[in-house]
Every structure is written in C-alpha cells, then in structure tokens.
Amino acid sequence: MNFYSSLIAQSAHTKSLTTLRAVHTNVIKSGFSYSFLGHKLIDGYIKCGSLAEARKLFDELPSRHIVTWNSMISSHISHGKSKEAVEFYGNMLMEGVLPDAYTFSAISKAFSQLGLIRHGQRAHGLAVVLGLEVLDGFVASALVDMYAKFDKMRDAHLVFRRVLEKDVVLFTALIVGYAQHGLDGEALKIFEDMVNRGVKPNEYTLACILINCGNLGDLVNGQLIHGLVVKSGLESVVASQTSLLTMYSRCNMIEDSIKVFNQLDYANQVTWTSFVVGLVQNGREEVAVSIFREMIRCSISPNPFTLSSILQACSSLAMLEVGEQIHAITMKLGLDGNKYAGAALINLYGKCGNMDKARSVFDVLTELDVVAINSMIYAYAQNGFGHEALELFERLKNMGLVPNGVTFISILLACNNAGLVEEGCQIFASIRNNHNIELTIDHFTCMIDLLGRSRRLEEAAMLIEEVRNPDVVLWRTLLNSCKIHGEVEMAEKVMSKILELAPGDGGTHILLTNLYASAGKWNQVIEMKSTIRDLKLKKSPAMSWVDVDREVHTFMAGDLSHPRSLEIFEMLHGLMKKVKTLGYNPNTRFVLQDLDEEKKISSLYYHSEKLAIAYALWKTIGRTTTIRIFKNLRVCGDCHSWIKFVSLLTGRDIIARDSKRFHHFKGGLCSCKDYW
DNA sequence: GTAGGGTTAG
C-alpha cells in the first residue's frame, strides 16, 4: 500500500495523468480499499487537473474526510467552478460534516464570485458559532474580502475589528476593499493604523497603498511609501515597481514614473501596460507609442488594457496609420471581440471619419455593454449619421441595457449634427422625465446648440434660464447660433453675459467680430478689432494640412510658399472653372474682411482647405483613393460647398476633419447634410 | 494532505 501511496504522490508531483490512471487501475485490481487510497487518488487527480475524475472517485468513496471535502471545494473554485464548490459545501453540511477554517477561507470566495450574499452571511454565522470567525486569521480575511466584494464595507470593517491578532493579510484585505470602492482616504487610514501597530506591510499591501496615494494625488505619502518599499527590500518586486510608476504618473510626476521604469530590470505585461497608460494619461502619446513598440519587440503581448490605452493615444493625435497597425495586432491576438479594445478602435475610426471600419469593429464585438454602444453612437454623432445613431439607441434599449449620461450626450449630439431637431427635443424631454439621469450642463449645451442652429433662438435662450450656473461654453454656443442667423441684437446681449463671466475672452470677441463682418457692420468690426488688439488677443491663423504618401503638407490662406504652388494654382483654377459649370457659386458672406466683391471672391479661392485639396488632387491624379485633409479651425461655408462640387466632379471621396468634426464628401454630398 | 490579500482599461 505504501508502494501505491508513493506512486500516486509521484504522478501527482509530475502531473502525469496517464500514470495516475494506471496506478488507479492497479489499485482496483489489487482489491485495496478506497478508504486508504481514495483520498490520495483524489488529491492526485486534482493536482493533475482532472476535476471530473476526482469527483467521480469522490462520489464512490464510502466515507469522506473533511480534508477531501475542502480539497474538492478549493480546487473547483480555483478552476473557476464556484457553483460546483457551493454544491459541495451544501452536500457537506447535509451529510453532517462540520466545516473548518479551511472550508470557510475557501468557500467565501465562491460566494462573492457568485454574488450569493445570503449564503455568505449564513456561512459567516456558522463560522461565528464554531468560533472560527475571529480566532483564525484565514477565515477573518476571507470574510473581510467577501463582504468587500458584496459592497458591504461596514460588515467587512466589523469583522476586521473583532479580530484580536490582526495580521498583514487581514489588514491588506480591508485596505484593498476600501481601495476598490474608491475610498482611498479610508485605505490610507487603515494603512497608517497598521504601521502604528507594528504590522509590517508586504508587497501586496504596498502595491495597493501606492495606488491609493496616486489616486489621492498624495505625492508626500507616495514618496514616503516609496522609501518604505526600498527599506522592505521589495524594490525589485514587479508589483511594487508597477505600483510605484503608476503612483508617480497619477501624481502627474511622469518623469519620476519614467525613472522607475528605466531602472527596473524585469517588466511583465502589467508593468508595460501601466507605463503606457501613465504616458497616455500624461499627454506623452508619442512616447507611449514607442514604448508600446518596444513592448512588442520584447515579445510581451499587449492585453485589452494596453490596446485600449495606446489606441486612445492614436485617437487623440489622430494617428490613423499607427492605429490601423494596432488594429491588426488586436486581430492577431484574437482580441478584436473585446469590448475595451473595440470601443477604443471605434473611437479612433470615428474620430478619423472612417465609419465603415468603426461599424465593422462594432459588429464583431462579442460582448456589448452601454459604454461600447455609447462609443459607436458617439462615432455616428460626430460624423452626422443621426438616423444610425438613433437606431443604435433603440437597440440599446431593446437589449435591456440602461442608457447613461454619456449615451444621452451622444444621442443629442447625433440629433444636433444631423439637424434632427424634433427627435432631439423628444429625447431631451424623455431625459427630464427619467429621474435616474442627472442632466448636466453638457446636455443643455447640446440642446441650446440644436435649437439655436435651427433658428429657435428664443427657445434656446429660455432653456439657458433653467441652467443653474451657465458657463462660458454655454453662452458661446448661443452666440454661435446668433452668428449663424445674423442676430446681432441677441448676440450683443449674450456677449455681455460672457464678458461678465470671462472678461477678455478671446473666442467671444472673435465670434462677435465675425458676426458684425457677416452682417456688413464694418464700423463695429473695426471697433472689435481694436479691442482685440488691446486685449492682445491673437486669432490663430487658419491652416489646413494634407497627408499625401506619408508626407504632410501644410497650407495657409493665399500661401505661395509651397514648392509646387504653380501646379496647385493651375489645378485650382481648372477646378474652379469646372465646378462653376456644375453650379458652384462663390459665397462672399464668408469673407470676413471689408473688400470689394471681386477681391472677396479671389480671397475665397485661396482658402487653406482649397489649397490642400488642390495639391492632393494634383499629386494623386489618376488614383481613386480618399483624400483626407485637416483644418485647425472650422471649415468655411464656401469651402464646404466647393468641396461638395469637387467630390462630384472628380469622383473622389474627400474627408475633412476640422476643429470640431469630420465631413465626408462623396458624389456632391456631405455627411453633415450641410448642417454643422 | 487543504486556505486568505495586489499592480493595468472605456
């Protein structure tokens, strides 16, 4: 029998299931009783990872020892089969076997994973009755963890308080519990208590507490704990290093974060990811991209966290090509169905105006939640696809998901950018009747823009009255509507409101100047311009750029500095002649200078967006690729009309990103349906 | 012979 016993132990050690099965067969053949070897065989099967065989044997045993029950329970939990573990626990009680400390410390996790609050509370009661709650550190810390996961921090703290001999794990469990509920200050208090009582924090504690300091922006404590990490000899532990660099980056000390990263000798996937995240959050997108590339070179594969973050970097810098490369990596890793990576890709393609790709990413997501759907709705909104956005909004509700504040911002923006005024008003009214959504100033801003742009200025002004503390952005939105509709009188009132809130607000002066200019009130224009001069406000010059064959070309209005100016102007004049025959009519309302009509027309000809498009067309003649141009300010109304005709004339798709949104020109039409 | 806590994302 000892012979079999050691054979079983050996196969368990080498994790050789075949050997174990052979031994098992021989045990049966030899007629040995299971009461001696059964438990050992079960242990062997568990160690070899075959829970099914362990269970089969377990069911055949004539009597079962508490240790075997515990092994069955904990092995099922660690294999993600918490439901089965709970069944074992129930059967165990039914057979009259009393749980011990091992049982409780294991089963609590199953309850928290399955959200079985009642079960957990009942087990807790039993642990109290059996005197195991506060005497055994293992039980107590498992209970603290369980209550924390049930969002019952009070109960967690109560269990914690009752334990006489608090050890490091118990402290850490409570600290982590507070941390995961965003109660970083509480976590820090417990940590101080722990240190004062002479309990030495270990790597788990320090990893967590550093993040707390980061979330609090508490650099002083963060640095103190950095010292503690060094003193505890845990500086080389990956988790400490990861938390250290996260702490520094969350305290906006990205240079220190970089220093920590450069000094570590081994970085795992989480470390690399944390670093990338920190860089992106601190506005170091380019560095993040090169770190991401280095990570790939080091054969560390990115996870959804990494991808989400680096794609965010691509979005904010509109690095479409890098983003596409990362999309390819995402697919290669089989993570294109992941909602985090997917949402980030949708944001990227949405921002870059590639709606087909955004939608195809969305369609392969294996897991949909409100945030993932929000990103698709927002992408539609940004690009003027109002009906598609509304359709998705319906689908979200039909799926039984609850729209949140972001959903409503996105859907209102969609209505706004597509000119769906009635739909927008209806949705806004429905939000007001829905007490679960708190209306923010952003919702109002969106509505005021929607009403104002459709010339319902009185209604827009009435809506502002309802906002408790209207801000500059809100007033400026209304001012913009006044400008569009040439409402000088209201504009002046709005202007004075803005200057009350933000004296010397540059954008406002410029907006009003443009309004006076388009209304032909040149005296006021001159007045405004001198005010602007006095305020030393500079209007940033209009600029457009275009990427042709990986080379970026920048243009300013009337700019002759481009080496291919001659070809550009030739192309431009050729286009002008042809688009005029198609119906293009220069609209001098958009020339905001006091010039005679002829000069106004020729100044329109050389707007930066026209130059950029003319260059791209000249350079890519004979191709059918989409032309993408960028403008630092909003696209001009005359250029908008002109580009539509150019897209019709040349059959080329043109995508223009301005400071606020994308315009897709195709076959003489624009995705914004002339409403922006 | 079995058991407790950690670092990264929209």
Automatic annotation (TrEMBL):
Coiled coil: none
GO MF term (any one): RNA binding
GO biological process terms held by the UniProt record: RNA modification
Domain of life of the organism encoding this protein: Eukaryota
Positions of PPR repeats: 65-99, 167-201, 268-302, 369-403
Protein biosynthesis among keywords: no
InterPro entries on file: DYW_dom (IPR032867), E2_motif (IPR046849), E_motif (IPR046848), PPR_At4g14850-like_plant (IPR046960), PPR_rpt (IPR002885), TPR-like_helical_dom_sf (IPR011990)
Domain DYW: 583-676
Keyword annotations from UniProtKB, A to Z: Repeat
SUPFAM superfamilies with a match to the protein in the record: TPR-like
Alphabetical list of PANTHER family matching this protein: PENTATRICOPEPTIDE REPEAT-CONTAINING PROTEIN, TETRATRICOPEPTIDE-LIKE HELICAL DOMAIN-CONTAINING PROTEIN-RELATED
NCBIfam families registered for this protein in UniProt: PPR (TIGR00756)
Family stated for the protein in its record: Belongs to the PPR family. PCMP-H subfamily.
Protein name as it appears in the record: DYW domain-containing protein
